[in-house]
Amino acid sequence: MRFSGLRVLREGLTGNKGWKAHWRDPAPKPEYDIVIIGGGGHGLATAYYLAREHGLRNIAVLEKGYLGGGNIGRNTTIVRANYGLPGNSEFYSHSLKLWEGLEQDLNFNVMHSQRGVINLFHSDGQRDAYARRGNAMLNQGDDAILLDRGGVRKMLPYLDFDNGRFPVRGGLYHPRGGTARHDAVAWGYARGADMRGVDLIQNCEVTGIEVKNGAVTGVQTSRGAIRAKKVGIVVAGRSSQVAAMAGMRLPIESHVLQAFVTEGLKPVIDTVVTFGMGHFYISQSDKGGLVFGGDIDMYASYAARGNLPAVEHVMEAGMALMPMIGKARVLRSWGGIMDMSPDGSPIIDKTGIEGLYLNCGWCYGGFKAVPGSGHCFAHLMATGRPHEAAAGFRLDRFRTGFGIMDEEGTGAQHNLH
């Protein structure tokens, strides 16, 4: 079933009775060529690109709950490619290009909106750092515009430009950045993978990973054993727990990141705005709600809920930057479990176990990376070679110290990233 304007019109005129389910609900088969553990954005994208780019069909995605029920449905929906460090910049540039063709590729409206991202700066040192970052982005082939105070005021007149501690001096504008609808991204990839023969198996929790003579042979699940020649772990904040089933200890800490949304308001914020000194970021959804967040909770946790000190911090930062939001009522908050790596950059690599592959360590960058992550991980699993855009995301960099990608310059401390 393909979507088109004519099809939508016809269904609207005939009571919408012709629509079919977007994907099947198959029972697991005894054996697959490839098993993907994790039915979030990264796992579904991996399965889709394995089928689309590499022609593989005998694939299963195993999800312990429902598809898209993890971090892909618990984020602030920001898409951007404004990274400055070699290794990261190439990857996120690759991912943004995939975002720009995603709706046509999937034949599905993921509500990708290139409304722009503005990173504010508040000091001469920050301005110089953003100028360097902007030049790196331009050299990479992406877009960047350094705005002075007047340029930011013209675009964002509602900011508190004279904040005593952090006066707004300017910003780095990334016009091709923006937002997308998180649920729709999961649904689009799920639909695309299913159409190409991938089995999407929900309510199927992996309880063990079978390894024999140094090679993976399959998984144990709540719905029985499944044999597999290759297994990919793509489970975000649960990466350490799942890898432990294969006897691996990962350099990952799991922390909770909270986000918030207000009641629907008339359009007022037409870009994504980030306040680095207060660690606050905000945009407005198509339904009118202000969507915003800040720091992670500063202790390790597997609870998909947050703490009140982090709530207070985010609200304070928002009020310091744009006092106009003070009367907006917060409707709800949620927490996603972040897999924080020591250098703040991801891992897409083989493991020491033959046939077992790992995709984790996305920290704050998981949503914007979904197309690039799935595309590069599928390439690795299908060919055994890293994709050139993700060649630096090696697991052994934390053991050897070679190739560390500390984008923020905050050192090897997970919760600082």
UniProtKB/TrEMBL annotation:
Family annotation (Gene3D superfamilies): D-Amino Acid Oxidase, subunit A, domain 2 (3.30.9.10), FAD/NAD(P)-binding domain (3.50.50.60)
EC supergroup of this enzyme: oxidoreductase
Reactions catalysed according to its record: sarcosine + (6S)-5,6,7,8-tetrahydrofolate + O2 = (6R)-5,10-methylene-5,6,7,8-tetrahydrofolate + glycine + H2O2; sarcosine + O2 + H2O = formaldehyde + glycine + H2O2
Boundaries of every Rhodanese domain copy: 34-78
Keywords: Cytoplasm, FAD, Flavoprotein, FMN, Nucleotide-binding, Oxidoreductase
Biological process annotations from GO: tetrahydrofolate metabolic process
PROSITE patterns: RHODANESE_3
EC numbers on record: 1.5.3.24
Entry-linked Pfam families: DAO
Molecular functions (GO terms): nucleotide binding; sarcosine oxidase activity
Domain of life per record: Bacteria
Alphabetical list of InterPro entries matching this protein: FAD-dep_OxRdtase, FAD/NAD-bd_sf, Rhodanese-like_dom, SoxB
Names of the cofactor(s): FMN; FAD
GO CC annotations, alphabetized: cytoplasm
Cellular compartments annotated: Cytoplasm
Family under the similarity heading: Belongs to the SoxB family.
Protein name per UniProt: Sarcosine oxidase subunit beta
Source organism of this protein record: Antarcticimicrobium luteum
